[in-house]
Amino acid sequence: MTEDDVERVARAMHDPNTIKRHWEPHDALARRPWNELTAADRSRFLSYARAAIAAMPQAGWQPIETAPKDRQIILSRIFGGIIHQIDVGGWEVSPGRDDPGGYDPPFADWTSNYGIEEPTHWMPLPEPPQEKK
Q1: pTM over cut 0.70
Q2: Does residue 23 have a pLDDT over 60?
Q3: DSSP collapsed to 3 states, 71-108
Q4: DSSP 24
Q5: Pairing mode, if any, of strands 107-112 and 82-94?
């Protein structure tokens, strides 16, 4: 987490709609732009942002039961603290098919490029690198 990340969260928390819904005592702060807040008020929002970020789930390997099923993620099989397999994959649902080439039964399961069977953990994919101009 960088200070830029903290400031981005603090600015979002300073948003008038957020303050109106959750921070009624600080309503007067919402009427002033971020760069017009006193150093003490900005510091207070930065402290709130650090606390909010600290309460978020941490990055790193998480149990597969908590994995999102709506996007590509990094999958792995970890046993005894050792990573045995790692790959990019996601949750796939197939209605199955019955055609001249054979029968594929319907399924819903984790799939990956190299076929990790029964992944135990996952983590989000990092952001792609920025292209240099």
Answers
A1: no
A2: no
A3: CCEEEEEEECCEEEEEEEEEEEEECCEEECCEEECCEE
A4: G
A5: antiparallel
